Fold each of these.
Amino acid sequence: MIWLAGAMIRIYRQARFYQIEEYKSGRYLRWLLARRGRWLPARPAGAWFVGLLLALFISDAPGSFVPSAVGVISGMIAVWPPDEGEVKKGFKATARAKRLLSAAFAWAALAAVGVLVVIPHLPDVSDLRLAALLTAGFALWLFAPLWLVFGNLLMTPVEAAFRRQFVCRAARALDEVQPTVIGITGSYGKTSTKTYLAHILNGRWKAYPTPKSYNTLMGICLAINNDLAGDYGVDYFVAEMGAYIPGEIESICRLTRPAISIVIEVGPQHLERFGTLENVAKAKYEIIRALPPDGVGVFNWDNPYVREMYERGYPGTRLAISKTVNPADVPPGGPRFVASDIDETLDGLRFTVTDVQTGEREPFVTPLLGEHNVTNLLLATAVAVHEGMPLRDVARRARSLQPAESRLVRQTTPGGITIINDAYSANPVGAAYALRVLSLHQAGRRLLITPGMVELGPLMDSENRKLGEIAAAHATDVILVGAGQVEPIKAGLLAADFPPERLQVVETLAEAVNWYQNTLKAGDTVLFLNDLPDTYSS
Amino acid sequence: MSAKRKTAVGVIFGGRSVEHDVSVVTGHQVMRAFDPERYEVVPVYINRDGRWYTGEPLLELKNFKDEITSYKGVMSAVISPSVEHHGLIINPTSGRFERSRIKRLDVVFPAVHGSHGEDGTLQGLFELADIPYVGCGVLASAVANDKIMTKIVLSQQGLPIVEGVSFSRAEWQEAPDKVIGHITHELPQYPLFIKPATLGSSIGIGRANDETMLRAYIEVAANLDRLILVENAVTGCVEINCAVMGSGLDVRASVLEQPVSWEEFLTYEEKYLRGGEGMKSAERLIPAPLEPDLAEQIRQMAIRAFRAVDGRGTARIDFLVRPEERTIYVNELNTMPGSLAFYLWQEDGLSPQQVVDKLVEFAREAHAEKRRSTYNYQTNLLEVAAQRGLKGVKGAKGRAIRPV
């Protein structure tokens, strides 16, 4: 019973990671098996082993309570749940998670019953029975992740049915409201572009953006079913579409049928899932292929992969934007909206937008930080102008923009320390711009706290090393979080002659926070760059 | 609003007003003007009692000679003030056989004249619902619908008006002699016009040549309205009408018309019923036979009057003019003129289809202009209130509450 309870607790605890890995058994198991501490922690294993030895070697009088005591105590020691430490993203008891847990509990209970049925049939040697019981219990506990996986398998057809139903409901809701759908994809900048576009469009129409970073088929369905359904006032539905596997954007587009699609960047984000940048580009292009012939494609000319999509010629109406081309000599067939004279200060970004087609020029002043936001804003501008909003109105709306959640959000602590929260962007381009924002703060020390970037596939080491080199130029202090994956950044920093005494490696974010709170003073600045999910902490 | 979808325009007509029938005619002229390729016309009929309906049979003018609501396919419907509906709730009190459903309207066209339609009340509903709508806003409609307020606003802007006095029904019923005394003091010359302040289409208007008739007409007007206006009758003048169209800084005036039967007074029959179909075939001179520079002066004055009440969309401004003396008075503003003054714009080369297109465009612009203002201003008031209770909030006003 103790083992079963322990197994249940373990199942429950593990379910959180299962959720983070998007209920994908393969990804979850790979994560689990990557470190022995995860699948075979020392304490339970030790307790089992010692218990087993005791059971086998202590011969005793029949009827003694010692064997049972050994069993109970070793069981207790083994399954007592360890302290979880800091939980960034807690377990969410969604309906699906509950179904999964029930199934996993059922498997565990079934296995436990099986053990209890089999053991009495073993030869009547108490030592052996106790040892078997201990071993079986331990196995029950050890295989907790397996029960989850089995539970997930059992639930697969059920989940599929639920999903189909959910998608159908969303399709019906969209059909009722009939908003113009704007799809946004890109390796990064999706959430920011979506937020800015919705804000700008709301200056003239009513736009509903998918909340937070919802960008999977199910996330978008959730947004539609919970918020969009029944809101007939919505003119534009701005949907962020993520590509984690090829075909995913296609399936999102089949549901939402965008009339306007934006491609921001093709970069090494999630490269480990795609293999090559070409595959990433292919997955992103699905959003353009899904457009009807009279749809509108909006492209970032500055990214070679995205420019290639623009030049492919579909659909007929294509708009490109650039912040690198000189507005005076835009090549024929080149970008239509061009930003120039980009100036970044602590007050935000200033730049001039030229509509090459009409010759209109408009100064943009925004409180946003980070030069990559010029691209995001240009893309949003292109859509708004195409839909009939005067460029001047767009510029006016741009003044009141706010950064998207955890994307270069600046705050000042009561103690006068400036905190720049860029916990969500973890791509090489955004990171470099974030560091430039950090170096605008020349008043005091500039501390970078980061675990580095992940999911960049084969480029992970080199990109992190590069990040270290750039960081050396912008930060005065660096704290790297998580000894496991920060070696390349460290190497990059040291290679760029960053003073080693200014560099620390800590295990948890809490330690880093503790350090700056005790050490930094008014006028200093901290940049939180990227925040890894719990599956990365050791 | 999908790019490929037709624009759903709700045309509202009828209404709880003495001008119900005129409005039904105007509504059908408007519905017929919309290009069916680009617009989906949704008829919305308000009957004399103020009940709302929608449905296919409302599209046929001839059906209105019967009891229209008994037609199959005519359903109860309301425009919801709640923004997420953005249009009609059909069968709002759904029963066993009828499910309620939503019909989104991209634009609303209130082709309703007079009370409960042209006076800002209906416009207020569209503001609440956040739906673009054709024509003047709440304030302009309300001001133009009230002849007394119109005089106050126009004279404030330096526009020439006919002198008059106003009083309420209560004042009249309380002390009629005192009111008459006041009138004869202010306006010693007969004839005088007696008008209910807010009714249109000449209803309840009388022309008095002596005190007996004055008293009689005031009695009539007091039965129709709470406020009564008595003004000098401008003798030896012609009536000149001018339609204007536009929004913001871009307002244009139409050619002028002169209704020809201005001998004694324009009666209701003359104004609407002669000739059968709306105002189209009523006898009138277009363009009015005036000196070109006088005509231009009147047109400019029409635009000024329209701006004075903060008008948008369209209006017809009626003048009293003595051509020989070149004196002009702005008489009244109709923010939803009968037949939308299609016949005047036609002279300027604008077809009814182009007129409704433009009016929809102005409606959208006005709505966009409204969106430029911020209505959603977040404060931490509720947070503070939740923490401290209502007392704490009261004391903290202006200090602890800040935008977030």
Amino acid sequence: MSTVDAPAPPRTTTVVPAVAPWWRRSAPWVLLAAGTLGGIALQTQLYTAQERVVGTVFMFVALATAWNLIGGFTGYPWFGQVGFFGLGAYVTALCMYHLHLSFWLSLVLSGLVAGLFAAFVGVPLLRLKGHYFAIATLGVAEGLREVVLNLPRATGGGGGLTIPTLGPDAPTRWLGNDGFYILFLLIAAAVVAVALAVSRSRAGYALRAVNQDEEAAAAMGINTTRTKTLAFTLAATLTGVVGSAQAFRIQAIYPDPSFDTSITELAVIMVMIGGAGTVLGPILGAIAVQYMSEWLRENYTNAHTFILGALIIVTVVLLPQGFVNYLGDAVKTRRFSLLDNVRRYRL
Amino acid sequence: MTQFVQATLYGLLQGGLLALVAVGFSLVWGVMNVVNLAHGAFVLGGAYVALELHDALGLDPFVSMVPAAAVLFALGYLIQRYLVNLVVNAPIFITLILTFGLEMVLENLLRVWFTPDYQSIPTGYAQDSLRLPGDIRIPYGKLIAALLAVAVTVALVYFMRRTRTGLSILATGMDRGAARLMGVKARHVYALTFGIAAAMAGAAGAAEGAVRTFSPADARSFTLFSFVVAVLGGLGNMWGALYGGLVLGVVMSWGSQLLSGTMVNAVAFALLVVLLAVRPQGIAGKAFYASRVEV
């Protein structure tokens, strides 16, 4: 006889985790495989000089994608990427020149050394933020170059080292233009595959959380130091592998070109123009910037850095968030105006 | 002993000039949170203005510090007002890349106009030395350059602290929103800050032109040294830029006595990385996030 109604039984709703359908989840992988096969197919249409140019594009796809792991996902301005590139190049050169190890073993060793070094310096460096991280990593890269330059007995100093690639002394024969095209294509594909795996994983979301608000991420239970160091180590390992392959391709390596800051700068620009924190962005950015740079160098030899610089300025003003991020936002909000885009960040 | 004193004096003179090279870089960074990678190109711009004035009118490079500063001020003001202000609120990468693009453009222009060759501005006295007891020599050129550089840096500090314009720049650097509410025109103040920084770079460039050879390829190393000095001294801290410049100059000068080749640069960078890890606010400054601009 109670006047109070019994509480309504709780409605049972089964919570379905939001998982994208299988074809959407596997689409990036299918695209990656298709892109790799397309790269192999493209090779048949190229002559030697073009092969070299496209091989360099693949190299920058790999470098930009590796940079994106720490610079794009985590938002740490890593201005010392070339340090690990040069480290990989010199580890390979030293292994092949002094120890007569095969290139493939040297390639693995280069990645390992670069990764270990990154893990070692990463712990103190990743405590720094913003511009301080940028200059400290730049300092590590410059410091490495000076060390290589000043150990002439091992590294040949400024005179450089020439990896033996022909004759009985050569631990591994030079791969030829065709071989290096395929090698760089496979390295680029592997690095992109790593980025794809990271992007969808728990670690990838942790990295993005660190980017948005590091303290909040730590409060949510993310071990930020470990996450950042892992990403940094991974990015450095991949960069070291790319440096190793490049060293074997050019054979004669010198400290200045191996530790050239403009390699880092190009990678940063490619990621920023393509779209930081996405997998597709760095790939598109690398292809666009490297192709543009090559084309300008050929057609406007004297003014090519002028035009490239001006293009970078215009792109950065019009698309500060990068092409892929702009397109994503624009499609979602149906606002395609570039002027709105400029208004967002101006004073 | 003589060698040690000589190296120290050289380092101090070099450091005084480095302070003027870097002070504008530090100012822009501290006030606007913009790392200006084109700073080195501005320094070279000043050097080439002095070179042109010397060739055309026979003007002494130290006198040319004034017109060089004026030209660079105008350039800097326009660049900030109509270009950098467009993206000044974007993440730091964006301004970094923008100024990187700017550096490419400026360096290419310098190379086309003035050729990539190394050039110098000859003066009648810069190579002569002042002899001190104990066989210590100080070249007049380096002495004048360092003294002028320190004087200009100190003058800038007083300008920032004592004038209305300087105070409005500092206020904008501390809290832009509050400064705008007080009637400060932030766009103009930012452009003015960038202009002043470029003017300092131009004056430094003219002085550098008197004591060393230069080519457009030096832009990078000027930017890098500015970076190191600004970090050593603490951002936006103009006294800090002076200390940072002097410390860097002396350390590099000692290092080149003790170490072979260019190993001294490795030591300088190692020092920088260790310093950053231990004391990110610089050797002279307070923590920069507590009060971003310490003048």
Amino acid sequence: MPTKPEPSTAVESDARPTLMDIRDLRVHYELRGSALARLLGGGGATVKAVDGVNLALRRGEVLGLVGESGSGKTTLGRALLGLVPATAGHITYGGQDLAELNQRQLRPMRRRLQMVFQDPHAALNPSMDISTAVAHPLRIHGLVGSRAEGRARAAEAIERVGLVPAEQFLDKLPVELSGGQKQRAVIARAIICGPELLVADEPISMLDMSVRAKILELMLELRADLDLTYVYITHDLATAKFFCDRVAIMYMGRIVEIGPTDEIFADPKHPYTQALLRAVPDPDPERQVPRDLPRGEIADAAAPPHGCSFHPRCPYAFEPCGWEARDLRAMFERRWTELGEEVWERESALVGELDEIEGYQEQVRLKVGDRAPELVSLLDEARAHDPDEPLWRGVESIDSDDGTVTVRFRAGVDPALGPAGNIDVACHLHNPELRPK
Amino acid sequence: MATPNTPLSGGGGPFPQGRGRAGRALRGIARPYRSSHGVGRFMLVTGTVLVVLMVLTAVFAPLLAPFGFAQVSGDDGQRFATHLEPGGDHLFGTTTQGFDVFSRVVWGARTAVTVVLLALMFSLFIGVLLGLLAGFVGRWVDRVLVMIMDALFALPALLLAIVVAFLLSEYVGGGASTAALAITAVYVPQYFRVVRAATVSAKEQTYVEAARAMGAKPVTIMVRYLLTNVIQSVPVIATLNAADAILTLAGLGFLGYGIQPTEAAEWGYDLQRAVADTGAGIWWTGLFPGLAIVLLVMGLTLMGEGLNETMNPAIRVRRLLPVSMPELTSRTSAPDAAGAGTGRERGAAGERPEQETSKDGDAS
Amino acid sequence: MTASVLSVRDLRVWYGTERGPVRAVDGVSFDLRPGETLGLVGESGCGKSTLGRGVLGLLPRGAKLDGEVGYQGRNLVTATPREVQLLRGPDLGLIFQEPLTRLNPLLRVSEHFEETLRTHEPGLSKEQIQHRGIEVLRAMGIPPTRYRAYPHEFSGGMRQRIMIALALVLRPSFVVADEPTTALDVLVEAQIISILGDLRRNFDTALLFITHNLGIVAEACDRVAVMYAGRIVEQGPVTEVFARPQHPYTRELLRSTISLATTGLHYIPGAPPDLVEPPSGCRFHPRCPSAMRVCPERFPEPVVVGPQTVECWLHGPDGLIPADGRDPLVREEITVADEA
């Protein structure tokens, strides 16, 4: 039974040379607004899919990019290969900055930078047989002279990924292969040009349980034999723990925690990582732990939260985390969900339409006329009802003045990645200057 | 090529396991005929038979037709009688001008098939190429091409064909190629639209991104990854368009803008000449060319609809096969029979499922 | 022990294909008690989704159903489609995998509730409907402020909560949940599983939870039924089955699953069988590490082992195994080419 290869082997991981250096990488998308908004010339919102990522990829390592959908892990993986253009930043590889090259200049580099896709069925041209598909990178880069040579090389690669005997697969169409076989063919195509870096985007998540381990095992073998570096993109912490030397946890376009796999899994620093780890379902009934899950869901990428993106869901959020008007609205929604329809009807009449307290303002002004004292006492009551609610740590003051209730929040600070032992984490809880005493 | 061509495993059926590309192409053509059933199969087979008959007529026209298409006198130099009723030497009779109607119909088939084939080839080539380009490149290329195609679409088909035929007749003359080009102009926008739409959706597929990740040039992506996949929607429209093109050709001929009578026999022209005859009770000059048009158009339409039925996943109905379930043998009460019983039942169910009537089950 | 809500006996669902019938579900028996969650696990193509739909009479045309699905003294297999349709909703619910395709984008959430409640409980006033809707949404963690929003205004996880709320607002006694969390993220999945856990305590709804994720079964289910090639090969209480799997397939599947505790890779050789021509005898025998001479020859009997029921010759009954039946089975090596 293959066991986890001692990852950091004898070489201390930091001693490995850097293969690719990513500095302040940003990938932003302009959202096309509604048809009306476009007619009126209003620009759509900007989604910061990758928002300032720094990363040094070391030769021979397996780096995991872990996060939920919308975390930017897939965009980051594609940006590393130049498949999506970088908005800003640098990707230094082989003495060149990939972020500055155009598609034509990138093409020759693609021999060395390859990708394995999530859905092996979609990644293969349905009308191209396996030998042609696997040999195609060779022909694209002019590495083979003839079809026959390509076919021979394809057969070699196909056998290398465990599809033996190759003759049985060479002339088949993708549709005639099982999911695992197709993924092996995709891997064969990725390694045929002798790449240095393989970005694997959820390579096993579409496969059946009994097949997953086989593909992971194959990838580990190939890494050892072909001296590959992997970027393993996944939402599955269990495979990341097994497969990766280092993991980077991503949330809303940023790396919130990065470090050696063993240390992150043994002692996660970021509250988000802690939550993810608690959420992994464990098949061992003896190991079930009581769930203490973060509330809510990942925020709208076009309007990320102020300060730390995770603060609205974080149970440990405190003063500098970036409190804003939306958090007050979310507090009321949670309160009404808990207390029910009657309380909702009574209090929403007082608070007014919640949509009006949407926004980024660090202070909220609620114009309620002569019911201002009532609203202040409602806020006090809400605070008394749930004093552990992190929002209240961020509320600086509640004033009532001339029929307007003003709620002021403490100034938010964007958390930056900083060291906490061997791990780098972007959380104020680990910032010695901001950490609560 | 020193390739070990091992037979493919799996599959089966009446067709021999093809070798490499040729075999696959053959299987591709045979597939609709094998997988179709019911009404779809009837349409497909009937249509194909009609079309094949017409094509054979066209190919062997010199052998089938007793006379030339413009021949008005026999080998002995004697002029044919005009308005001869069908029968005798002239199977379908003769026309006002003394042409042999049967020969005109047979030669007309050759004209129709030639023109439509040429027109299909031209419009396929242009339409698919431009559609791929517009769909793949996008941006201004797409906008300009879509605008041009929409403008062509806006014109009534026959009017467009007449204009093109009129313009071309100055330079190319009144032959088959002019008619083919005129028809091409009508059908290019259709292929363009279908191929462009297919390209736009295929462009988003992972395999296209995979091709980019391999370092493929845009041309390679278009030819090796997009073309082969978007082309699959073309046979159905091509067949249906061919039917339409026959009518357009006949329409052009009828109006006098098509193939000149001196160049080739053409059914539309013959029909136009026959209009005057009907009043005089001369039915055969109109009936036979008309019938030829109907048969060929019907054949192509049936074939196209049949193909559509079997190849278009949106309207293809999954064939419901009867399932026969053997009685479940009580394993606990008669354990010794259980193992053997299961084997026997499987054989029965697998080999002749149709013979056992399926029980009424709740299959809603 | 209370009476079963649902009692399935020898259920078979076969589909006709050109090669012969596909035995998607081939003789399956289980019981569901009130408020109980039964996890139905298996790899793709084992027939678990077909079983879930078959129980509710929601099968595509051409599928053939046989056996017995006992619900309130009736056999749903022989009941008319109309009768089954009337039960669906107030008695039998279904939660799908992809919620967005099941919600009408043009209707507000409130209108979905109005439509559902008016159809099955005519006579409710608008206020009563709103009250019922808001209460069940609250139980799913959706604030009352969102009652009048449109489906597209919700995230994927929220939509799935709405779907569950819509299935539960009629208080059905039995719900099939077909991979309800597969399309969702880890955290949202965990949230929904914990909500489902609360619900089955509060609503007394029996749940058939179809999933391929053994971790979820361990978290969310009371009992588990492991499916392989159209058969339930093992069923029993989750803790027992996972701690002491009695069927080799269950054991191998558990070992193949990569969890946070995984230190070594393990997998089952070979691929799941073709359901048109399943292997003779025990369907797992070609891949089974413990296969014996008897396995390909005879269909294994359901055997009660402790709290579990297992279909495996390893557990007898000895009386039915021929003299040399326990000798190890000699098989051809499974090549990688045959593997998935």
